[in-house]
Amino acid sequence: MDETKIGREKKDDPAVVARQGFDALMKGDDHVVAGSFKNNVLAAVAQVMPDQMKAGQEAKNAKPDRLQEGNAEVRTGRSAPLQVAGCVVGLKGYGGPV
């Protein structure tokens, strides 16, 4: 997850989110959008955004960096060799020399 946009984003403080959730529970609220102002804005926008658009945005944000547009693997459709501990390991379907 660290190699995705979502994984790299700054996260809300878990203690603050837990406190907001607990406070809402104690007040009898059945719903709360906890976290930062940004999180509240995103939740509000999600209420009016079409599901297909939300799904596309989430897919883009959760896609590993190595699979983002402009990456050689995406352009060629082939896997590049994998380097492990200084050794190059060929992957099935890779058409280049190993």
Provide structural commentary:
This protein folds into two domains: 5-63, no CATH class; 72-98, no CATH class. 0% of the residues are buried. The chain is built from five helices and two strands; from the N terminus they run αααααββ. With 98 residues, the protein is mainly α.
Mean pLDDT: 76
Order of helices and strands: HHHHHEE
Number of domains: 2
The SS-based structural class is: mainly alpha
**Strand residue percentage:** 5-15%
Give the end-to-end Cα distance, rounded to a whole number of Å.
Answer: 28 Å
Quaternary form: single chain
Query: How would a textbook summarize the main sheet?
Result: 2 strands, antiparallel
Uncertain runs are: 80-98
The strand count comes to 2
What general outline do the C-alpha atoms trace? flat
User: How many helical stretches?
Assistant: 5
Side by side, the strands of the main sheet go 1-2
**Structural Rg:** 20 Å
Helix content: 40-55%
